[in-house]
Amino acid sequence: MTVRADPTDVLVLGGAGVDTVIRVPELPLPYADSYMIDSGIRTRAGQTGDFVALGLTALGLRTHHLDLLGDDPEGDLVRALHREHGIALTALPQPAGTKRAVNLVAPDGRRLSLYDTTRARPGDRFPEATLRALATASRHVHVTITQPCADTLPVLRETGVPLSTDLHDWDGENPYHEPFARAADVVFLSAAALTDPERTMRLIAERGRAEAVVATAGAEGAYLLADRELTRVPAVEPPGPVVDSNGAGDAFAAGFLYGRLAGEPPLRCARYGAVAGAYACTVPASRADAIAGTDLLEQAAGLDRPC
């Protein structure tokens, strides 16, 4: 069967789902029989693939999102998010239901995420014809580490389309993340679980094909490894109060890819990522929003001006 796909800048694979967001007084949360949540408990669409797709679209890139969704209220929320923001979505049926998680968010924006692992099955796969058609119509593919994306990597490498991935809080040891780290041309990860970020970043570059490796470090900024040189990328002052760090790493990835697809050098791409990530920290969990391309370029230009 021949599958046709419209030209796309970035295809985002996986990571579509719903989060229930609960604001807690502190993290870690001390044991208690109950807590009163005065700010309310909210469920909204937006997991890693959704946020990357949202960020890319807000920056003006043609974006297509492919994932498995259930015929359930959670899936309806994800579909509505994509419709409202003009993000092309190919949603394949998932009988196990749409991915979901619970996020506990502290006053300083830190979070603890609890993922429902029953919403995936070992035999889940994307149809190869659909995957190939969407990938070859794209300038770039961003692969999340959710199921069933690991099985897409051999097909994606055959297409020759550049790949990126986000390993999130990988500790540098978990074997599940290794195929993603080795297959991608750009690798993002969090430095939170790394005792030696530089060592892990260099191992990723040596063992795989990554041209750029970025380890984000929250308020401490990020580390960029490109052309064998490690550079510290300073954090950007958020344009408002920090209310939620959820989605900041996804926004960073979107900003970085925006620069990469525009032909910018890796350091400038990382600065774009830092600007986008800082903006994301000011967006409350109840709202889906991302920085626009004109605002990102203006703020990034300000970083180059002398004080």
Report on this structure.
With 307 residues, this protein is α/β, with parallel strands linked by helices. Helix content is 32%, strand content 24%. It has a nine-stranded mixed sheet with strand order 5-4-1-8-9-10-11-12-13, sandwiched between helices. Helix 1 packs parallel to helix 2 and helix 7 (248-261) runs antiparallel to helix 8 (266-280).
SSE topology:
Layout lengths: L7 E6 L3 E7 L17 E5 L2 H11 L4 E7 L3 H13 L2 E6 L5 E7 L5 E5 L12 H9 L1 E6 L9 H7 L3 E4 L11 H6 L2 E5 L6 H11 L4 E5 L5 E5 L2 E5 L14 H14 L4 H15 L12 H12 L3
Parallel strand pairs: 1-4, 1-8, 2-6, 4-5, 8-9, 9-10, 10-11
Antiparallel strand pairs: 2-3, 6-7, 11-12, 12-13
Helix pairs in contact: 1-2, 1-7, 7-8, 8-9
Largest sheet: 9 strands, mixed
Structural class: alpha/beta
Ranges with pLDDT <50 over ≥5 residues? none
Report helical residue fraction: 25-40%
Strand order of the largest sheet: 5-4-1-8-9-10-11-12-13
Q: Tell me the number of strands.
A: 13
- Give the end-to-end Cα distance, rounded to a whole number of Å: 59 Å
Per the principal axes of the C-alpha atoms, what is the gross shape? globular
The ordered H/E elements are EEEHEHEEEHEHEHEHEEEHHH
Into which percentage range does the β-strand content fall?
15-25%
The average pLDDT score comes to 94
Radius of gyration: 18 Å
Please count the helical segments. Answer: 9
